[in-house]
Amino acid sequence: MSGSTDDKLRLATVWLGGCSGCHMSFLDLDEKLFGLAERVDVVFGPLTDVKVFPEDVDLTLVEGAVANEDNLELAHQLRANSRVVVSFGDCAVTGNVTSLRNRLGEPDELLQRVYGDAPDLAGQVPRSVVPALLPTVQPLHEVIPIDVYLPGCPPSAERIGRALELLLDALEAGEGLPDLTGRGPDDLRFG
Amino acid sequence: MSPREPRATVPVTIDGQEVDAVEGETILSLARRVGVPIPTLCYLDGLSVHGGCRLCSVEVDGDPRLRLACATPVWQDMDIRTSTWDLQEHRRRIIELLFAEGNHICATCVSSGACELQDLAATNRVDHIHYELSYADEGVDASHPKYVLDRDRCVKCTRCVRVCAEVEGASVWEIAERGGGSRLVAEMDVPWGEASSCTWCGKCVLVCPTGALSFKGRGVGEMRHDAEVVAFLSRARNEGEWVNRTDEEVPS
Predict the structure, then answer these.
(1) How far apart are the first and last CA of chain B?
(2) What pLDDT does residue B3 have?
(3) Same domain, B78 and B126
(4) Which structural domain range is residue A151 located in?
(5) For A5-9, A81-85, B117-121, B133-137, which range has the lowest pLDDT when averaged over its residues?
(6) ipTM value of the model?
(7) What CATH number does residue A73 fall under?
(8) Nearest-CA residue of chain A relative to B126?
(9) A158: left (phi over 0), alpha (psi -120 to 50) or beta
């Protein structure tokens, strides 16, 4: 079923334009992480040291909005290599805090304002090494097709745990994806 | 309380349930009485009916168009459906359009956790916004000493307009312009702090369903509205029932 040698599902987590709060909330699963580790191999994410998004991933949680060129490239890679993509947290789902810059003008103006005009930076605007900003920050579903949405800023560990359990159950059983929207406000809420 | 003639009842079917409706009452009033949930946003007990948000739209058998539950009186043998898939989809699209039109970022909002729009999204199963977001930037009017208006969080429900005119009698608020360009303005579009007709009563802030109107100084998630104050005032004035709401909540 999965590409894994020991038949565990392959789980990836991705950190795009967000604060990492969703990953922190994921870590708040605490002891449930042991149970999760028995069901999945974590093959990519901020918690691994893998540099290139691998092939044959079963389930990918994507935190953060699409804010720069690296985010965009990684979004397309992860979509091509994942069976199920979860838009994970409000930044991925709506743009959220990351998208607040959208009303402040073009990226060049913005960078000039933040870095160029800052008194301590001698007019230095970061342009090399760091990826270029996209004209606007976009929610993930405006860039790639999404299978499941898990809003929240961040989604609580309980919400993440319940969603993962349902998704992994469905994937292991080879069933269609569960509908996560009808499970009450505790499992579905912006903010 | 003034004596009233008991009103006649008419048989009505709501979601397959046969009930006796009071002649002349609205579909919404009936639904609430018999425990059928219909989502509302602009409607508020104690204020005039606006019928602007369209969230309470229901289907009536034999009627080709949707009817507003808040504004449509029942009639004999009316067959009402309140939660068909089409209606649920219709409501989701409305909620998503409201999100797309403003700048409703819950994570940075004073009313997060006590917001009717946030609740409506959750209860109507909105998990993302299909429409391109506008990232509106109307700005914040913090000119009033006690209150703040964030127009990007305004859903133009006009509760504030109505409570100010109908309950406080001050008529500070109005909606200027039309369609997507419409905006809440104080008096003749002056900064709120310069609106001399404002009595500082704060009822507009209490009835606001979102974070558009708030008490100054509230941080993220710290604002709590109290829209039910209007029903209390209305009952008190019109029916002479000055029931202390705090007493009602104290267990005997």
Answers:
(1) 25
(2) 57
(3) no
(4) 9-102+135-187
(5) A5-9
(6) 0.90
(7) 3.40.50.700
(8) A181
(9) alpha
